[in-house]
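Sanity check

After download, print the first record. It should look like this:
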Amino acid sequence: MRILNAIPNRRAIAMLDIAETDDVLELGFGPGHALRALARRAIRGSVTGIDQSATMLAAARAHNRRAIAEGQMRLLHGSFERIPLANASIDKILAVNIAYFISPLGHSLDEARRVLRPGGLMSLYVTDYSAMRWAQFAGPETYQMFDAAGLRAFLRASPFAEDRVTIHRIRLPLGFRGLVAAIRKN
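Expected structure tokens:
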């Protein structure tokens, strides 16, 4: 999975165009590889990560010891439904492979939008439904899968409906395809 996630992470991070002073949030950081890339870009800002898995939290802490020790990064164990950050406190949000697990009835996207500053940018990556179905990654915890039209509809029905959204298609190894939504908060 690390190899398959490397390209989506790079593309989603590139889309954020992170400045040195940005305050960045990653939702669902997994083992923490993208966190390190975020910290290398936001060298005078801050990086915060939230993940629901205690196992991933431990792995990400081990992978990012230095940035944590220097106070540049903090990692939190918790839900995206209640992000423990102040309103409009984040410049950029990275969210790779989490949209499948966001309940349409939940508040995850409400919370992401709440903490994003006006003019802030969120980069949301999903693997196209055709590949997810073929590889059978979907399980009982998967609420939804997306093609480009489905991702656009999902975002139009979200708190980001009035914001500027562009969706980019990317090619991945082994015939997989991905979608990266760049969401600019008004």
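If your output differs, re-run the checksum step. Summary of this record's structure: The chain has a mean pLDDT of 91.
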